[in-house]
Amino acid sequence: MKATLLRKKKITYDDGCIAEIVVWELPEPTSERSHGYKYRLNYSAADGVTLLRMDNEAGKGDHVHTGEIELPYKFESLEKLFHDFNEGVNKARRRK
Fold this sequence. Notes:
By secondary structure, the protein is of the alpha+beta class. It is 18% helix and 41% strand. The protein has one domain.
């Protein structure tokens, strides 16, 4: 059984920044993804530089990138993930 695409959304802002959300539901949880989701939420500047990324790349688990800094992320739910990403994007946009 294959993973199911739950959400794929891309927003391009007037200043050229891009926010993209991609979330897959796995056929069953794994040891690395016990919540059963594979995801990538990315916010980048117009020049392609990543400003914020939340993902669970194989071998790394749930984590967040803010600029050059990478820290673990405690996944609680998809709703919380989306909320945290939106908060991070809003914070990054206010810094501009």
